[in-house]
Specification:
Length: 201
Amino acid sequence: MRFPVSRRSRHFRVLQALAAAAFIAALPGCELRQAMYNQPKYEALESSTLFANGQASRLPIEGTIARGGLRFDDHLYRGKSGEDFASTLPMPVTVDLLERGQERFDVFCSPCHDRTGNGNGMIVQRGLKRPPSLHEERLRTIPVGHFYDVITNGFGVMYSYASRIPVEDRWAIAGYIRALQLSQNAEYSKLPAEDRKQLDD
């Protein structure tokens, strides 16, 4: 006597068969992957009799420069003119550059330096060490390349931002810092006539 097979149990058997087929099909792939992993090869820093120096890893050919590492322009990449910090930006100062600098400054610098550059950012308010005000006489008169260098290499408790901020953006921030300093320390006599009139009104 045959009992009727329910639709649910039929679906279950089909799923079991599909799962088994998928498992069997995956076995050769796993074995292949393991075989590739176990294939004969030299590990990093392993010794070898193939080369005269006894090493498996070859040194780069003398004079080889990694992609993106060809940086002849010291002004642009090091913020220097000779061995001194550059006193100018390596690109024209435009409104777009300063706006980009402000946007990047607000993202990366304001947590410590605050948006005015006085050094009372949010993390300072929460107990971390206060950075110097960017409006100190020492920092207002230092060459602009100093700011680029600090962003690139870090200074004191500030770590390097070289991996986070591209070269052009570092210069945009440095340019914006100069504009920020000027905004807080501009001499009245050097303001354009329309700005003086606005202040007098």
